[in-house]
Here is the input.
Amino acid sequence: MPLLTTEMNITGALKKVNLIPELIESFSPTSLLQIEYGNDKEVLLGNTLSPSDAAEQPTVTFVPPDDSASYTLVLTDPDAPSATDHKFGPWRHWVVVNVPGSNPTDLSQQHTPYIGPGPGPNTGVHRYLFLLYKQAQPNQTFAPMAHEEKPDRRNFQLSQFVAENKLELVAANFFLCSTP
Here is the structure.
């Protein structure tokens, strides 16, 4: 019987729900991304949370692969407006930049402020994906992105954002959510 590694568990869970290769390429995680909402609800590689469970900004914890680096955290929903129609996806729910490796709970540089899940009625199960990237430089400058209006968050060009900012994926986690 083969030994299951953390990497196999993470990438296997992402592949099972088609986040690899639909939204991200296969990668070798170098950190674990722990996400916990204020009501003791954890994000556990595909567990189900309700919109009210995830309404408020979560606490994020990770062990940085490099203490001297800075990190970018992204939360996106590729299933906007529905699980079968992705014309507005990926939806940009949250982007935090310049998270210091020396203080990984410092989420003060909110590039896009947090907005919780809001799957519409009868839109199926949505996949909410947290991605942690190592930045090429600490205290990097990121081009501003409008976020005040809901249409501003539609069609987030994740791969373009990653390429333009020279980001390296180091961790991922996700949950599933639908409207009851």
